[in-house]
Write the structure tokens for this entry.
Amino acid sequence: MTDLGKAADPSVVDDDIVPLSEAVKVWARVAALSFGGPAGQIAVMHRIIVDEKRWIGEHRFLHALNYCMLLPGPEAHQLAIYIGWLLNRTLGGMIAGLLFVLPGFLSILALSYIYVLFGNVTVVEGMFFGLKCAVLAVVVQAVFRIGSRALRNGLMVGLAAAAFVAIFFLHVPFPVIIIAAGVIGYIGGRTGASAFRVGGGHKAGSDKVLEDRDSLLGEEIPPHAAPNLAWSLKTSGVLAALWLLPVAALLLALGQHSVFTQIGIFFSQMAVVTFGGAYAVLAYVAQQAVQGFGWLWPGEMLDGLGMAETTPGPLIMVTQFVGFLAGYRDPGSINPLAAATLAAVLTTWVTFIPSFLWIFAGAPFMERMRGNAALSGAMAAITAAVVGVILNLAVWFGLHVLFRDTTTLTIGPLNWDVPILHSVDWPSLVLTLLAALALFRLKQSVIAVLFASAVLGIAWKVLT
């Protein structure tokens, strides 16, 4: 075992905690099993890295997770980068992060090809019909699941309600809501108000706790993980250039009206404000992609989320599908499938490169953030606001899944979409209720419900 008892010296290049070849195999396995959203992905990571391999202890795992939850972007992906960096330095973090995304990227790319080439085939159409209904039930479940954890007092309920009103009735942009909630929480945390105290985020799910001292890594910080401002600045500069220079090049070469430039800028902005996970940001992505840019239809956004739910990797991979359709429908002078593929790669690049930047820039300094009341308050307030945003997403999806037509109702400064009741889609309603029954009452897994809904959707389309 590596000697971790020595004083941490950033100039010392220590050996890997585990052999890199073994780490690659383990991270590939984690990636292949990472279904079910962030909670499921974190549980898989915990089971393999902590319980099975015993590479790091329980408290270090939760400490890293809490740090990742303070960051914008997919926390499960960032946690993989963090642990990979901790065990195998910068290369280990890069490998863990890339492997975590790769299976989902390839799966959704393949499904996207099928979608645009065979989407009108009855079987494919029925599969996505069923997935839409199941996804609506899954999003509603997410409102209850996250709400039960985040809305622990009246103030948090009020923040969630205010966020819903702001985004649904007033159409306040998602980033503004998140920033406002963060500022409120930061101030509340600094004053020591008990309402802004937050716990440990996702539950790791292990009955027998592996103490840090009994893990392979041990309790001490390895030399490469000690705070090193020069290393952090250099690494951050390289990653920032990899992220932003391609976007700048697209802007200069193609202009601001090119679909590729729009994708690069829009999803780069998303990477900075995606607090609260994929469900929270999807409402804003859907609003802009559907109503702002016209890249896809509301039902297609649900199709993409269905793909992301049924493939390994972060749910935010749904943005890849959005980019794919945008490139396919506005290919310019190149082949539509080639343009779609390039747009999917670009979307994925600007969505996930920032996660590496946040981790490599801040992870060595995370110990100084531990227990910071102001940051914990900001996280509590943001999480509460996210509940309201996800509720908006559920309502938005419900309007477009359960009804064929909607209209806009305006009262003073408020305006919102309402359903035309006689346009209710009865097959969608029945299948959504069945999916909700399976999730809420029968406690079936998300994957099982999605699979069963897809089968029922196919059966309905074939028989009718």
Summary: The chain has a mean pLDDT of 83. The chain is about 70% helix and 5% strand. The radius of gyration is 22 Å.
